[in-house]
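A further point concerns the way the authors explain their paired sequence and structure data. Since the whole study asks how a given chain folds, the encoding of that fold should be made plain. A single example would do more here than another paragraph of explanation. An entry of this sort, consisting of the sequence and the corresponding backbone structure tokens, reads as follows:

_____
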Amino acid sequence: MFGLETLDGPSQAAALIGLVLAEAIVLYIGYGALERYLGPKLTALLRGD
């Protein structure tokens, strides 16, 4: 998919760790933004405000 299989063992491991870390950062920022912008609205909706 990303061409990681063409790398040797240690390089492949480092690239995979980097990709997983990048994915985690993107998800952390994305879910944080959703919680910041939609959280208060959903809380108010559930409380009936």
